[in-house]
Design brief:
It is a single chain. The protein is mainly alpha-helical. The protein has a domain at 84-210. 50% of the residues lie in helices and 8% in strands. The chain is built from 8 helices and 8 strands; from the N terminus they run ββββββββαααααααα. The protein has helices at 85-93, 95-106, 118-131, 141-163, 166-191, 212-228, 234-252, 263-287, and strands spanning 8-10, 15-16, 23-24, 27-29, 38-41, 47-49, 65-67, 74-76. The strands form 4 sheets. A two-stranded antiparallel sheet has the order 1-4. β2 (15-16) and β3 (23-24) form a beta hairpin. α5 crosses α6 (212-228). The longest helix is centred in the middle third of the chain and has 26 residues, at 166-191.
């Protein structure tokens, strides 16, 4: 008797690309039947999943981005139609550039007319980063670029582990750094009301849990702390760490654990806060400068 090992399905109704007009069917993941068995949660809030005997390793992240196979315009599902007029025209005109850059990073085998793979899943997030440049504030585009960059770095980890290809390994810190820049920029844009979270479906960063604005602050602080080690000038490094510490302080100031701020997040925040304090104390003793 045959065993059903399907892990995805295609939507019944086709989508029409708002950029080029192409109709296509988006592939989505089936989550029941033991396909996804949750494992541990990493410090960067990525949920790991256990390998199953029936389905093997399943990566739900690779199905989140809707990609037009014709013009390679891409976005999260809820934002796909949030582009029109001159923005859509510019996005269409940039099609060749998107395709060229995608092939340069991921090779010529990426095909969005076929079932998603880790390779096309990674490419989908890259295409989303480029496509959100034509979105207005209603889509919270800067944050979506942050989320896409972070998830791209995660899928690249899986690609590197599966294929042992150094090129993918080398791209991971690049997109983590981009995620850091986009996370910090999106927080600044929120504070000045230049971009809004009104239509935001989830802060993520992964699919299994919405950690809310507090999770966004934590990720910005975590990434800033991680990349502060590459800053050689002590004053500049201290400034970067201090800004990260202030973001974490906002989480502490928001009260006790809640639905969007579970105890596991607070524990990670406290751990990172302590680590940053220790780094700042070490910098202070080395430079004679008090960072506060």
């Amino acid at each position: 008797m045959a065993t059903d090992k399907k892990i995805t399905f295609y939507e019944k109704s086709p989508r029409s690309c708002p950029v080029c007009g192409q109709e296509f069917y988006h592939e989505q993941i089936l989550t029941g039947g033991g396909r996804l068995i949750a494992g541990s949660l990493r410090k960067d809030l990525r949920r790991l999943y256990e390998k199953t005997k029936k389905y093997g390793i399943v990566c739900p992240l690779i199905y989140s981005i809707v990609v037009c196979p014709q013009c390679l315009y891409a976005s999260f599902s809820e934002d796909f139609n949030n582009i029109s007029g001159a923005d859509a025209t510019e996005a269409l005109n940039d099609k060749n550039s998107r395709e060229k850059n995608m092939h340069a990073l991921f090779g010529s085998d990426v095909d969005f007319n076929q079932n998603r793979t880790l390779l096309s899943g990674a490419a989908s997030y890259f295409l989303a980063i480029t496509s959100y440049y034509w979105h207005k504030g209603i889509s919270f585009p800067t944050f979506k670029k942050a989320l896409s960059s972070l998830r791209l770095s995660w899928v690249l980890e899986d690609l590197a582990a599966e294929n042992n290809i150094e090129n993918f390994d080398a791209l991971i810190p690049l997109f983590q750094y981009k995620a850091k820049e986009f996370y910090n920029s999106s927080i600044d844009l929120m504070s000045t009301d230049k971009e809004t979270t009104d239509n935001l479906k989830s802060f993520g960063p992964d699919l299994d849990k919405n950690y809310g604005f507090e999770g966004m602050l934590y990720m910005a602080a975590l990434l800033s702390s991680t990349f502060s080690f590459f800053i050689e000038e002590p004053q500049a490094r201290g400034k970067e760490l201090l800004q990260a510490k202030r973001k974490l302080s906002k989480i502490f100031g928001a009260g006790k654990a809640s639905k969007s701020k579970p105890s596991i997040l607070l524990d990670l925040v406290k751990e990172l806060y302590t680590d940053i304090n220790q780094q700042l104390e070490k910098l202070s003793s080395e430079t004679g400068t008090k960072f506060e």
